[in-house]
Amino acid sequence: MSFNNLDTLYRQVIMDHYKNPRNKGAVEDGSVTIDMNNPTCGDRIHLTLDVQDGVVNQAKFTGEGCSISMASASMMTQAVKGKDIETALKMSGIFSDMMQGKDYDDSIDLGDIEALQGVSKFPARIKCATLAWKAMEKGINEKPE
């Protein structure tokens, strides 16, 4: 597939997640709730997770922001559901490396998330893409045992 076709496909994936977000809403009785915002551009997210026995059973979000931040939140909630905490945090590290243009561990299939890889070329948009991931990390790391 040519670069232009791949770029077009990635844009379509991002716009699909933006216009038809997965896991929009809040987890009833979520064990983790976190609010974060990106003051630079106004993106904000409210993330709820149901984490039991070290596994992310549910992940949902609400918020406002650009297509990149909302699509990334949709993709992240899909990606971490059913994963153990260690894997979810590893995925976040991989995503962070990808956003910084670094070589990243490809041992975990990121699925739709790879569509955001092009964001690394636009430094001002990296915080948009990583907002939901940073919220997930913060929520898991601050979760009382």
TrEMBL record:
Single biological process term from Gene Ontology: iron-sulfur cluster assembly
InterPro entries from the UniProt entry: NIF_FeS_clus_asmbl_NifU_N
CDD domains assigned: IscU_like
Domain NIF system FeS cluster assembly NifU N-terminal: 10-128
GO molecular function, one term: iron ion binding
Segments traversing the membrane: none
Family from the record: Belongs to the NifU family.
Official protein name in the record: Nitrogen-fixing protein NifU
Organism: Jeotgalibacillus soli
UniProt lineage: Bacteria, Bacillati, Bacillota, Bacilli, Bacillales
